Automatic annotation (TrEMBL):
Residues 99-232 form the AAA+ ATPase domain. PANTHER family: ATP-BINDING PROTEIN RV3427C IN INSERTION SEQUENCE-RELATED (PTHR30050:SF4), CHROMOSOMAL REPLICATION INITIATOR PROTEIN DNAA (PTHR30050). It comes from the Bacteria. It comes from Bradyrhizobium yuanmingense. This is DNA replication protein DnaC.
Length: 255
């Protein structure tokens, strides 16, 4: 029979870190509670599955491009009561991903569009979906500087993921020359594959042709994006201005 150090060495060789990290605890629990072997063994296996799932989620988060782990539970819904709260929570169930549907979040700056998109994207990662989050204008400029080979790899990653988030589309009025064609390719390819896209934008869709410099291209993009799409309109006061005012008030009081 193996000693505990020998068992731990074998677990290391088998790359069973979840089992290795909790083995001694599980053994002591089993001895103290006089647990049957199969019950103890099932708990040990669950430890390994939990560790692997945790690592998978963290890896997908790191690969997603998200910089925050946001949740709808932490969002201040009372500040702007007119926000489409019910639809946001419906999207949070992720049923729209299974159905291959899209979501378009449009409205005033600072009203929570990006927050909601990020929270839904993070929930998708927690449910083992592959996610790509792009700050759209920054992505356009970075993509333009890549080599053709780098572009091909990047494009495939974006097209193949389960959920693509294009945040702050047309934040800048001017976009790179090839950005319109790139956007059309992304939307068209994902439409053919029935893979979901979330777009947030401060710009009303009627003006997209102006920013793209091509009304026909705008119509083509919107035709595919809006087919099987949830449209959410965000109105009200800016959270960022609220937070800035609170910061000024605290500093004034401190002084």
């Amino acid at each position: 029979m193996m000693t505990m150090p020998e068992i731990e060495r074998c677990l290391r060789q088998l790359r069973l870190s979840g089992v290795r990290d909790t083995l001694q605890t599980r053994v002591l629990q089993a001895q103290g509670a006089n647990q049957p072997f199969l019950e103890t063994f099932s708990l040990i296996l669950q430890d390994e599955l939990d560790r692997r799932q945790s690592r998978l989620i963290e890896r997908r988060y790191q690969q997603s491009g998200l910089d925050e782990k946001l949740t709808l539970a932490e969002f201040d819904w009372t500040f702007n009561p007119r926000l489409p709260r019910q639809t946001c929570f419906q999207l949070h169930t992720l049923a729209f991903i299974a159905a291959g549907e899209n979501a378009l979040l449009v409205g005033k700056p600072g009203t929570g569009k990006s927050y909601i998109a990020k929270a839904i994207a993070y929930q998708a990662i927690l449910q083992s979906h592959k996610v790509q989050y792009l700050e759209t204008d920054d992505f356009f400029h970075r993509y333009a500087m890549n080599s053709p080979a780098q572009r091909e790899v990047r494009l495939r990653t974006i097209i193949d993921c389960d959920l693509l988030v294009l945040d702050d589309l047309f934040l800048a009025r001017a976009i790179p020359d090839d950005a319109g064609a790139l956007l059309q390719t992304l939307i068209h390819q994902r439409y053919k594959l029935r893979r979901s896209v979330i777009v947030t934008s401060n710009r009303v869709v009627q003006d997209w042709g102006t920013y793209l410099g091509d009304n026909t291209m705008s119509t083509t993009i919107l035709d595919r994006l809006m087919h099987h799409c949830h449209l959410l309109e965000f109105d009200g006061r800016s959270y960022r201005l609220k937070e800035a005012a609170e910061t000024v008030a605290r500093e004034t009081k401190a002084n």
